[in-house]
Amino acid sequence: MIDFDERYAEKKSFFNRLIIVYGFFGLAFSFFLYQTYSLQVSEYIEYETAAIENKTKEILVQPTRGIIYDRSGKIIVNNVPTYDLIIKPSQIKNIDSFLADISLIIELEPHEFDFVRENFDIKARYNRELIVKKNLSEEQIAKFEVRSYKFPNAFIDVRYSRYNNYPELFSHALGYVGGVSNDELADILKNQELRQVETIFKYSNGFQIGKIGLEKTYDHILRGEFGKKVYEVDARGKLLKEKEFIKPINGENLYTTLDINAQKVAYTKMNNRRGAVVAIEIDTGSIVSYVSTPSFSTNAISNGISSKAFNALINDNNKPFFDRASKGRYSPASTIKPAIGLFGIENNIIDWNFSIDDPGYFILPEDQRVYRGWRKGGHGKVNLNKAMIVSSNTFFFSLAYKSNIYELIEHLSDFGFGKKVCADCFNPDLGLLPSPEWKLNNLNFGWFKGDTVNMGVGQGYLSATPLQLAFYATILANKGSAKELSFIFDKNQIENLSIQTSNIDDLDWNRLHASMIGVIDSPIGTAKSLQKLITHTIAAKSGTVELVSTETKEDYKIIRENEGNRDHAIIIAFGPMPNPKYAVSVVIENGESGGSVAGPVAVAVLNSLID
Amino acid sequence: MKKKLKFKNFSIYFDQYLFITITLLSVMGLIFLYSASQGDLNTVIKQSIFVGFGLFLMFILSQPDPDFYKIFSGLFIILAIILMLATMVLGKEVNGAKRWLNFGFFTLQTSEIIKIALPIFLASYLYNKPLPISLKHTFISLVVICFTFYLVYLQPDLGTGLVVFMAGIYILFLAGLSWRFIFTSIGCIILSMPFLWNNFLQPFQRQRILTFIDPSSDPFGSSWNITQSKIAIGSGGMSGKGYQEGSQAHLNFLPEAETDFIFSVIAEEFGFFGICILLSFFFFILLRCIYLAYNARDRFCRLTIGGLSLVFASTLFINLGMVVGIIPVVGMPMPFISKGGSSLLSFYIAFGIIISMATHKKLMQK
């Protein structure tokens, strides 16, 4: 036994030590209390927000895309609601057994099987939905719904298909829509100040965005704004009750200046030949017809196409996807001659009385090189008027020879060559307006006088798109000025472009128009074959784009055995004269004759527009 | 005060302060549990049975003289160790841990018993040893402590294991462990940290500690619990969202809302004011225990009261520290509040023994 003193010491030691331990606990509890105070008082707002965010979930409600109309108010592109069978590929382990099960209830076509199998993996990886079958009948819906418990990863919902009433007619002008990518959706949501968490994977499904054409250019107007439903959710994400519903703002309709009739005429007349037609309303710069052929069905692209069909389109030698109207580069050939003629007048190199003798060729004084005309023996004595009508190369060779290349480039640039001429075309090509600097930088060669001479007849390096040619025709028709081209009626944002002249007056323009009328009306005109087709007076200038340079007609006969070597047919035209309302450009690849091959298409389009 | 009510030849030992406070805490616990279990009456009824039984047990265990515990402490710990070993063989496995022994009507978490048996045993071993405790007795005590800790650790249950370990160390320290030994061991422990880290901790335990140090290293694993717990507590604010109005608990964001994280539910629904009131009850209990320890009749009683009350304080602090994120998640219930059988009962037992130690007097002593 320990004695009293020791017991007293023991008790004191015990108590001291107990206090030490409780002292530590006191410190620890103070720290705990401080932490709780920080959480509940100092950082209360932060955690309150976090708790609210935890229990709310926003589900985006998709707007309906705007409808696209033609100039007379006819619907071109519409949204068609269909009830579709949709699956969640990321939740399905074995797609083959799934398809086997589901096809017992809803019969699937072989191409639908293929489509699902082809797209299953990628949709699963990106956690997207996949439409198995579109446009279910009421009977199919009922059959599925009673058995839906067997298919937790499949559902039937309404989806809007983008439906073009004229699927091949407007494919390049209007373009098509497609599924939105995560980046695109992120941008859209950011612009609308919507939360992006979760939404990207789950609600981008079925939302369509313009990929090319006007669907792309005006996507921000057409697509509208997302609405949202705010739900209270539990930790598993189960929706408990709806707390708020902000309605989506549907996309605005787009009223285009396109004319269905003119478009149909152009498309039909092109008859699947490779080429393009662009027609412009001169006063407003409105594009009324925009066709590139051959074409493809936008409906197939927008709403799901099998990779087989898609590859067939991609690998087609005629390149149906290629928008020739704004991306095809063609030499303007003889259609450039009105601009060259005007250049001669403007710079006092020639006047309307000036004439030369056309022996059928031009010899470049510097190196004695021969530049040939299209007609052996030439056209005799030609002034500007006759040179236009018969398309004398010699006249324009010699005129170009006397021109300053820099002044000539500036003059052609005023007509839209090498420039952007359309305000809302999708990604147009600018063609090429060559300059000595361009040639040095790109071809490592200096500019020869011969290059300027070639430019005088629209051959050589100079190239333009059918869209630019249509703009050029519009400026010619409108005597030196034109609105930048566009597809919409609101011209507030549209620039006025004009050519800079000091020496060209109304009389000059009238004479130029007269010479272009003569191209069709004159018995010696290069497009006189069109006389029987026109219903109004039409001014035109045809051209033939030489792809392979030949000395004689016999040589050409040999090379034309290969269709790809044949000349391109090209024409610009406007009418009705003397007060032209519409201008048109037509290019037909390997069509050989501007006047008799491209001409009838141009005339048909103008006739349909004017009448 | 300590009451000794005389009924003819029969005395009743009873501490009204502890009894009332613990009863109030238990009733509040039931109310909180009703909310935390989202109004599951079954859970609450089952818990009330435990509470009722626990209070009864506490009362019964207050009656024997401390000498009873002193004499039988060796038997208790041997019994507890046997149960632990039985658990290792016969225990039912839940989530890879064998902690429970099934008795048909009741599954016993055996480590809860050793948590109480160990400090009583050590107190009975050390109460008559001269100060400071000699190296030999220190060594023997440490062997017992480490052995029992290891049994719990094997289950594995690091949280309870640490409480058992601490319980032993508390007794040893309070009994007068020499300071020189204390400082030497602290030095050794610091030096052997890396070894313990690599060889003693399970990968998931290391992960928890790492996550605790850097929560961003494990955004959806164990720190999810802490994040949700902090959101629950923080969003409660000063006065709380109101009873049964806590969205974190009721929409199932809070994990283990009925057990380990019940404090977060209380904090969410009753706010900072509410938890201050709740904690003042615990604070009162601990103060009362210090007072009782100071006035205990002998060294054995002092050590037992001090040791058991510190086990209580440790459990409470580990639970609170865990839910607010100042210590790693180890899985520790809140005494008298969290849903549970063994862990709940163990504290009624501990306080029964504390009251016995505090209320029995030996006239000849002091």
CATH superfamily of the largest domain in chain A: DD-peptidase/beta-lactamase superfamily
Q: How many domain units of chain A? A: 3
The shape of chain B is globular
Chain pair sharing the greatest interface? A-B, 43 and 44 residues
**Low-pLDDT ranges of chain A:** none
| Shape by Cα distribution of chain A | elongated
The CA-CA distance between the termini of chain A, in Å, is: 130 Å
Quote the distance from N terminus to C terminus of chain B.
18 Å
* Overall SS class of chain A: alpha+beta
Q: If you compute it from the alpha carbons, what radius of gyration of chain A comes out, rounded to the nearest whole angstrom? A: 36 Å
Number of helices of chain B: 13
* Total DSSP helices of chain A: 24
Description:
The complex is a heterodimer of chains A (611) and B (366). Helices cover 40% and strands 19% of the residues of chain A. With 611 residues, chain A is α+β, with helices and mostly antiparallel strands. Chain A has 3 domains: 4-42; 58-255, Penicillin-binding protein 2a (Domain 2); 261-610, Beta-lactamase (3-Layer(aba) Sandwich), CATH 3.40.710. In chain A, strands 2, 3, 4, 5 and 10 form a 5-stranded mixed beta sheet that branches. Chain A has a 5-stranded antiparallel beta sheet with strand order 12-11-21-20-19. Chain A has a 3-stranded antiparallel beta sheet with strand order 1-8-9. Chain B is mainly alpha-helical. Helix content of chain B is 68%, strand content 7%. Chain B has helices at residues 16-36, 41-62, 66-90, 111-126, 135-154, 158-174, 179-199, 203-213, 222-236, 247-250, 262-294, 299-323, 342-359; strands at 2-7, 10-15, 92-94, 97-102, 107-109. Chain B has a 3-stranded antiparallel beta sheet with strand order 3-4-5. Chain B has a two-stranded antiparallel ribbon with strand order 1-2. In chain B, helix 11 (262-294) packs antiparallel against helix 12. The longest helix of chain B is centred in the last third of the chain and has 33 residues, at 262-294. The mean pLDDT of chain B is 87. Chains A and B meet through helix 1 and helix 2 of A and helix 6, helix 9, helix 11 and helix 12 of B.
